[in-house]
Structure formats: C-alpha cells, structure tokens
Amino acid sequence: MSSTEVDIDYQKQTYAYMPCAEQQPGHRAASPHPVIVVGAGPVGLATAIDLARHDVPVVLVDDDCTLSTGSRAICFAKRTLDIFDRLGCGDRMVDKGVRWHVGKVFLQDRQIYAFDLLPEAGHRRPAFINLQQYYVEGYLLDCARAMPNIDIRWKSRAVAVEQHPDHVALTIETPAGCYTLCGRYVVAADGSRSPLRRMLGQESHGHTFRDRFLIADVKMEAPFPAERWFWFDPPFHPNQSVLLHRQPDNVWRIDFQLGWDADPVAEKAPERVIPRVQALLGPDAKFELEWVSVYTFACVRMDSFRHGRVLFAGDAAHGVSPFGARGANSGVQDAENLAWKLAYVLQGKAPDSLLDTYASEREYAADENIRNSTRATDFITPKSAVSRVFRDAVLTLARDHAFARQLVNSGRLSVPAVLHDSTLNTADADAFGGAMAPGAACVDAPVADAAAKPWLLQHLGNAFVVLVFGPPAGLDAAQAEALRTLQQGGIPLRVVFVTDPAISASAQAWPGATVLRDAEGLAASRYDARAGTCYLIRPDQHVCARWRGADVAAIAAALARATGNAPVSRTLTPSAPVQAAALA
After folding, report:
1. What is the model's pTM?
2. Domains of the chain
C-alpha cells in the first residue's frame, strides 16, 4: 500500500450526488436493472462487488454521501479476509490492519488465562485484523468505483417499495426530487434500522439486553501488544467489564461496561470519559479522544431473510452483541452466499428457488451467531444473583484449573457457520475425517504453481471447482473425457489438481486445468485427502460434496443439487442435528 493510500481520511470524504438516467427529461422506462443494492456499508459494497465480478450489473443506492464515522466494527476474521481476497481488496485490508491472534482474560488485576486463535502455521491470513470500519468501507468503495458495471448513487433514499411478479419498484428520494427505480431483485443492506424492512411490514425478533457500554477510541502511544485484553471486575472499573483492542494509526478501542442505569448522553461527555481512560492508563498518560459512543444491543433476526424479490443481508436481517465480532463478519458472509446465487438465477443457470437457500443457510448461521452472542452476554453481564455466583466461581477457578477456562466466555469469536444440513450439499458416501465436511468453508494451505499464486484459496471460488488430489494422470481416459464434457455444460466449472510436492507441476499438463503442488503437505492433511480424493467447491468457497474417487456422474449430480437444479427432499432447519445420511 502506498503512503498516499494510507493517508486518505475516509471519514472526511464526500461523494457527489449526480442525477441518474431515470431522472433525465424524456426518459423512457427500460427493462428493470438486474439487481439494486440498498446501502453502501460493508455488506452492501461487498454484495455489489461480488455480483459485478459475476458479470451482473448493479445499481447501489445510499441515503448519504459519506462513509461511516468512528471505528464501529473493527474486528475482521480470517474467513472475512479470505472473502476480501476473492473480491480483490484483501491485501489493502491486511496491510493496513493490526494483526492479532492472542487474547488474554483478566480477573481484577490478575491474568487468568490466554488463548491463541491460530496456533498453527501455514495460513495466508491472520486469525483477525483490527481495522476501523471507515477503512474497510473506503477500500471496498475504491474497488467498487473501479468496476464499470456498478452504478453508485449517493443521496438516494429508498422511501417506498412495490413488488411485482417480475420486478421490484423503489421510489428513490434525491436532492432533485423522487423517481422510480426498478430492479429484478433488491438486496436490502440498509442497516439495523432498515427502512426497507419497515416498508415491507417486517420486524426482527429476539432479545434486547438491559445494559449499556461506552466505546472510547483513544489515540495514544502505548506499550500494549496487539492482543485482545478482556477484564472482569478490574480495579480501575470495579464490578464491570472492560475490553481493549489496538487499531491502526495508534488508536485504541476501549469498551467500558456501564450498566443499564447509566445516562447515555452524560456518559459521552469528555469529563466522564477521560477519568475512565485515565483510571486504566494511569493519571500521567497522554491521549486524545477520537470518537465516543454509548450503545445497547440486541440479539435479533428477521423470521425470513427473503421476502419475494427483496433479500435482506447484514444488520438489516440480524443483529448480535459486539462480543465475538460476529456482526460485520456474518454480514460479509451473507454477501458472499447471496451474490453467486443471484448471479446464477439472473443468468439462467439456476431456478429462482436457489435464492430460498440463501435465506435458509444464512438464517441457520444467524441463529448460531445469536446463540453464541447471547451466551457470551449472559456470562459477561449476569442478571441474577445465582448467575453472578456461577460466573465469579468459574473465573476464580480458571486461574488454576484448565477445565474452568473452557467455561469462561468473554465472547466466542467469529467463525464461519458449517452449513451441515444445507439442501445444496451431497452427503458423504465415503468415510472422511477432518473439518472439511459438506457445508464447511474451505481452509487455506500453501501450494506451489507457475502462476505466482502460492495459496490454495487463490485458486478456488467465483465458480464451481472440482478439486482433485493427485496428478491428472490419475484419471483414466474415460473419466477425463467425461469431466471435460461436464465443463462444457451450462455451469462454469474449473478443475484444480493438487499433487505431491515431489512431482513437477510442469510435467502434469491437463488442458484447461490448474495443477498445484502441495508445498508442505498441509492441503492433503487439512482436507483428509489421499490419492484420488475429490471435492466439489461452490463459488463462495464452501464444500458441497467430496468423494474418495473422482466419479464424474456423481460430480454431475452434486453440481445439479448445488445449483438447485435437482429435486431435494427437505430444507435446512436451524435446530436440526447433523444426519449422516442426509440428502442421500
């Protein structure tokens, strides 16, 4: 990243309103736009970029002309970084962000334990980076503005919506007046107070927590390491909790629990904030307040993320507490799940019913996030005498006993949901170990190839991929020909071979395929692969099927299922247990 990029103050950038084609005199209604995305936050921008990369034109409307102010969401997980890589802006995020993987938990003034979120080597991306939301939005926006098939319209507020059999009509309010904007589908990424959700008469249901927290972004030079520090009942803020994170530009995020009775207006005043920070840092500490906010939170979601041709994503669809960094990360994962499905439906590669699986899969993920977030919040802020006794006993025992540390919950940090029960999966017919079951997000591993892309995930995604472990010569002539024929069908399909590192990739030519070498043997290990093992990977880098041998008929059937082009017997249910014979 250049120094010019580093110095951009995205909080001060403004983007000009420009009248659009629909507002021109004499404009005649044309065909509806393929997709309208409402909301230019991280989720809306990620959705628009992903759709554009699938050659789908997008109109992106936002009611403002600026990016977010204050750090807001700051913790971005490895899976989200993998998605940003696929969208083309991962390097900027990681280069600017503060990498971390270690967390420490304190009771009063004593550390009770530490944890490592990425204890093994051989991953391209760190477990987490801390990066202010305005940088994330800025980098995504720069990417979106460089794409000719994304039309960004600022100061364009959706004020009414009408659904029709083949399109959605939005009334857009602008400085030049209102106009009608029509799209075949609308993605509502318009935030936790989603106006589109209200216009459709929908609500989010769940639990609002009776507590308040103060966020203070503090600019200072400090010796603290780039780690997540969480205090229960610290001497500088007794009977409450405190969370500390380092951000870029020498900015530190400090979250102070305040209690439900705290006055949210009074607590934001500098004369109330500065003494709290000084109590943590010491009376002689030199610092400046950059941004202050007081918040409450809820664990809620819409009953359904799909309403006809309007699909809800991110905070518009679901909300969680900030403990665990599950909000923005799950929203970006909504975007990656939805974009390829919308593209396939619009391009005639899949039926409209494929979009129902966006709703069912991401509702399942939202329920998992809400469950984990609620448990963390109940532990951090016990609401009864009994739960407080339990929590304090666990914390006391955790100092000396490993079993108790497993019960400490300062926020189970974001991991991608494994969509075990998705109707798009093909159940295992062979015995496998490891984490790469159908429904799981692919993990990375170092590889060697001639294209200067030394990581496995750089070769997966954006289309369906048949991932074969072993050299191309391992396929017999009939299977090789059948696989080439399958590639010529209506669904884009790439073939990637991962071979033993001792075998030269240049000697393993297979027309139209990518041949990689498993540089350290980690790819085979992480995918529980042996010679002939074969995976079918979705465009969003999720496993949808795997076999011990590359049977092209089985691959074709799994591809049909994964695109919604094959009948299925049931739908994903959030509370359903994993069934080994599901969808067999």
Report:
1. 0.93
2. 3-97+129-204+301-369 (3.50.50.60), 213-296 (3.30.70.2450), 418-584 (3.40.30.120)
